[in-house]
Amino acid sequence: MGNDLKVFAGQSNPRLAIGICQSLGLDPGLIEFISFSNENIKVKICENVRGCDVFFIQTSCPPVSDHLMELLIALDALKYASARRITAVLPYYPYALADSKDEPRISVAGRLMADLITEAGADRILTMTLHSPQIMGFSRIPVDQLSGVPTICAHYEGVQRENLVVVAPDISRAKVTEAYAKRLGLPLAVVDRRMGGDGSIQVHGVIGDVAGHDVIFFDDEIITGRSILEGAAAVKDRGAKKIYAGCVHGTLTSETIERLDQSGLEGVAITDTIPLPTGKGNPKVQVCSVASLFANAIRAIHEETSISALFN
After folding, report:
1. Where does CATH 3.40.50.2020 sit in the chain?
2. Are 257 and 264 in contact (CB under 8 A)?
3. Alpha carbons 280 and 296: distance in angstroms, whole number
4. Has domain 150-288 been given CATH number 3.50.50.60?
5. What is the pTM of this model?
6. 107: Cβ–Cβ under 8 A, 6 or more apart, which residues?
7. At how many degrees (to 10) do helices 291-303 and 14-24 cross?
8. What is the pLDDT of residues 84-108, one digit of tens each?
9. What is the assigned CATH class of domain 5-147+291-311?
10. Closest C-alpha among 266, 275, 274, 264 to residue 246
């Protein structure tokens, strides 16, 4: 790799950033973040980046607004420091769930994020497993989307396969979960959850055979964990044995981790696109790193080689 490659990181996910830099064989770029008493922040790039190919790593996690401002100000700082090209590396895309105008008088915040990142100075975006592929269409700059599915599937390749069924926690997530089932070569079942007369979402049944089988629930993201835990109860009632779960983005609050800890799940696999809450380790939550995958993508972008093989 040329010596003009530099990788900087915000404060959102330092462990992942260090892992990416180690995989690249680089030291993280020198950067300073200063917070003032009026809650303004200053980002200072502490080394020369003129003419360099720069990658700035920042994921979306609490405090989301602080990390977003860090990202935008850092991109602007790099632009005015005359970096040749700036790639925003966003392991978890900010406001990824706000991808459509499903109510009157609301913002499609996912599109707004694309505009802000571009105006701040990014020339391209590198991200992973978007909630909806249409988010790539919001952007006026190139977007490369890596998939976290192979990483999560690799974690479960050691589970006994002959008696295993992949389950989608909701009909709307069936297509997402199908990608996991195809990669593992396993049958797919779907939990039928619908809105009841009182406005609450209720499990109406399970489409597919789970009796006597171990099952794995897959999705792109776990937030509260309720849909998977309600689905787990439904398949258990229908004769399922061991129950596992996996997702790419674990947006887990302390309450969600406690809920998973008290559940009957054997284990939950997530990637490290989002850090776990400080001090909230859980033996049921296994973290699979995607640092080397991002490093390979950064290397390919820098060397101007194809990264299409990394999309699968």
Report:
1. 5-147+291-311, 150-288
2. no
3. 30
4. no
5. 0.93
6. 98
7. 50
8. 999 999 999 999 999 888 899 999 9
9. alpha beta
10. 266
